[in-house]
Amino acid sequence: MSARGSVASLARRCLATTARPVVRGDFSEITAGDLETFTSILGDPKHVVTDADDLLPFNRDWMNKYEGKSRLALRPKTTEEVSRIMRHCSERNLAVVPQGGNTGLVGGSVPVFDEVVVSMARMDEIRSIDPLAGVMVCQAGCILQHLDETLAREGLMMPLDLGAKGSCHIGGNISTNAGGIRYLRYGSLHGSVLGLEVVLASGEILDVLKPLRKDTTGYDLKQLFIGAEGTLGLVTAAAIHCPPRPKAKNATFLSCDSFPRVLETFRRAKADLGEILSAFEFLDKESLDLATRTFADVKNPLEGSSDGFYVLIETSGSDEAHDAEKLQSFLESSLEAGAITNGAVAQDVTQFRAFWRVREGVPEALNTHGAMYKYDLSVPQAQMYDLVEETRDRVGGMAYTVGYGHLGDGNLHLNCVADAYSDELSSRIEPFVYERTAELGGSVSAEHGLGQMKASCIGYTKSDSAVEMMKLVKRTFDPKGILNPYKVLPSSN
Ligand code: FAD
Ligand code: MLT
Ligand code: ZN
Fold first, then answer.
1. Are residues 383 and 359 part of one domain?
2. Which domain holds residue 398?
3. Which residues form the FAD-binding PCMH-type domain (predicted)?
4. Is 468 among the domain residues?
5. Could you give the CA distance from residue 452 to residue 113 in angstroms, rounded to a whole number?
6. Interior CA angle at 237 toward 156 and 194, to 5°?
């Protein structure tokens, strides 16, 4: 396989991981007595999953890269049930993995050993929507896309959107501090989440769910759980600020002949499109080729183009004619200045979706390969593609290397796929990618979290004093360390 050539066809996924080995913590093992207690809490044995086949989807992640050995998954419906589960787990010293839609990309949502999986999937009720304030309160297990569809009926939208929207939960989004394609416009969940209800390791229910836009009474505790990846508590409900749904949307798919031209296009998009710019995504030719080769329904909107880089821009606003005029003028001046070489504007909803299908097809296409080394980095935009090229050079013909991502937010997705994991390939990629990211002053986890994949890598981005303070926070909320052990922070064992 050549580094820039075709990727070998679908190979059986090797479940080997790049995670560092850890030793099982001194937690209790499940007994018949525990199963009786959980059945009495949940009221029906069907919500206490113990069958080996039924447990498989709880034990494996979306990439088939991480696999745990849990012998028990629990499916609560109410906050009170989650609280009683945690009280029992705390008393019995049973380790727990909170699980949302299980679409996470760092092995955070699956057990490492035999931790009890607490699935939030049945906690899927919307409690209230206030169209005037633009606030929705819902349970943590609501699926992102369902929330957005419901909000559409009230003229509102979810402030975040990502390729996994059909499966991921809002509780999982909050727990990973997910970014996605509209971060550029609507910002971080640290701003959009107005309140949370959380069950702590002890079973205590922390109620900081008030749906207020402004509130300066004391410490803002909810912020600690946003991005905590289930290590500090189980998010059971959230109040989200939901912006008005735009009346007009446009998408344009552009080609650029070099990465500096992509950056120039971004500069122009910010200046010319201003308040209507809602996404600025880039993908390299290798990403586009892979997606179009893998899926028949993914087509290059600029058929025949052989440029090295592609950009997908979305605008959203309240006046179709005004937005279209702005977009047209941006495209004409970008073409004239040589920032872009070609472009297509979506003419209808079908084309709009087809453009996004290209971008969303990339991670799905990568996932059809035997081994996937997936990196999610924050790096200064000017140096972003250097990192892809340096990595491509290092892995040579051993893997197919692609770069794409949320360029508008400085978030690069660097991926190397191969037929199988190998020590040789791993050592060519890591720790190089982390070291270079640190040298560039970046982050080794822009939006996917650390999970088990990068629990020992936090030091590339955070100072020793910050990590020590995080450990203190962890001990305060979870003194026995039963919540999502072996994740996020370096394992003491
Ligand atoms: P899970 O995967 O189930 O869990 C993720 C973490 O959160 C785990 O540590 C878990 O223990 C914890 N957790 C889950 N629910 C709770 C809860 N209620 N309380 C406490 N802890 C909890 N991510 C992005 O940021 N941007 C993207 O653009 C993006 N695109 C993606 C595209 C695809 C095709 C896929 C497969 C994934 C993508 N992701 C993206 C990654 C993933 O979808 C997000 O991280 C998402 O937020 C995870 O939600 P989930 O419900 O699946 O959580
Ligand atoms: C994306 O932006 O497509 C997601 O974060 C998933 C990925 O990195 O592959
Ligand atoms: Zn992403």
1. no
2. 369-448
3. 66-245
4. no
5. 12
6. 55
As a whole number of angstroms, the distance between CA 44 and CA 343 comes to: 57
Atom of ligand 2 lying closest to residue 411 CA = 2
Task: Compute the average pLDDT of residues 359-366.
Answer: 98
CATH at residue 308:
3.30.70.2190
62, 105, 184, 367: residue to mutate for ligand 2 pocket, most atoms within 8 A of CB: 105
**347, 365, 383: which is the final residue of a domain?**
365
Ligand 2 pocket, CB under 6 A: 163, 363, 376, 413
Q: What is the pLDDT of residue 21?
A: 73
Which ligand has an atom closest to residue 162 CA? 1
Give me the number of domains the chain comprises: 3
Average pLDDT estimate for 364-379: 98
482 touches ligand 1 (CB under 6 Å): no
CATH number at residue 164: 3.30.465.10
254 in the same domain as 235: no
C-alpha–C-alpha distance, residues 53 and 483, integer Å: 25
Contact 223, 177 (CB under 8 A): no
Q: What is the mean pLDDT of residues 175-198?
A: 98
Same domain, yes or no, for 318 and 253? Answer: yes
Cα distance between the two ends of the chain:
39
Residues 6+ apart with CB under 8 A from 201: 86, 89, 90, 233, 477, 478, 479, 480, 482, 483
- Residue nearest ligand 2's atom 2 by CA: 405
235 and 222 inside one domain: yes
Quick check: CB of 62 below 6 Å from ligand 1? Answer: yes
Instruction: Identify whether residues 228 and 261 lie together within a single domain.
Output: no
pLDDT digits 0-9 by tens, 91-147: 999 999 999 999 999 999 999 999 999 999 999 999 999 999 999 999 999 999 999
Q: Is 172 in the pocket of ligand 1 (CB under 6 A)?
A: yes
Regarding the beta carbon of 404 and ligand 1, being less than 6 Å apart is answered no
Which band of pLDDT confidence, cut at 50, 70 and 90, is reported for residue 405? Answer: very high
Structure tokens at 318: 């309240």
Q: State whether the beta carbon of 164 lies less than 6 angstroms from ligand 1.
A: yes
Q: Which pLDDT band holds residue 491 (cuts at 50, 70, 90)? A: confident
Report pLDDT for 20.
54
Gap between the Cα atoms of 202 and 210, Å rounded: 22
320 shares its domain with 292: yes
Residues 130 and 228 grouped into a single domain: yes
Q: Tell me, what CATH number does 437's domain have?
A: 3.30.70.2740
- Look at the block and give the residue holding tokens 């209808």: 348
- Give Dmax over CA atoms of the chain in angstroms: 74
